[in-house]
Backbone:
């Protein structure tokens, strides 16, 4: 029995979990959710299966500012990602013009066989509004404290 066959139930559970979200998730987040759903997969198994799925092109991988790899089930068309640094929400971006531009730059400098990976990150509207609301509450509490 191969590793892939042995982990098929875990593979299917991970693919199902990631297909149901528009967020990239860390291995730890995947593991916790699998346990919540009744799986008995260990953390090592989760890492191994995520790695195999990414290598097979079943999952996309991004590395955000904290250095942690995050995984997501994406559509089959070529794309890049715009990912929220706070909640992990992700939007797929069409890549045609980006790759055309990269090839033009490469040609200009005599490079061939160019690979491009564009990874954009920022803070989504929902997280920005949530953070702004928290700042307003903090400021209001600070003003109250100053007036007493």
Residues:
């Amino acid at each position: 029995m191969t590793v892939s066959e042995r982990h098929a139930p875990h593979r299917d559970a991970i693919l199902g979990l990631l297909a149901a979200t528009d967020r990239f998730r860390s291995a730890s987040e995947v593991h916790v959710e699998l346990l919540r759903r009744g799986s008995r997969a260990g953390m090592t198994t989760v890492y191994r299966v995520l790695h195999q799925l990414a290598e097979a092109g079943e999952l996309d991988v991004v590395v955000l500012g904290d250095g942690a790899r995050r995984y997501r089930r994406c559509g089959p068309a070529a794309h890049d990602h715009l990912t929220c640094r706070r909640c992990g929400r992700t939007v797929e971006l069409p890549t045609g013009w980006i790759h055309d531009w990269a090839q033009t730059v490469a040609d200009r400098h005599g490079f061939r066989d160019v690979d491009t990976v564009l990874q954009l990150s920022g803070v989504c509207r929902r997280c920005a509004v949530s953070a702004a609301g928290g700042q307003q509450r903090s400021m209001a509490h600070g003003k109250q404290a100053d007036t007493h």
In short: The chain has two domains: 1-75, 77-148.
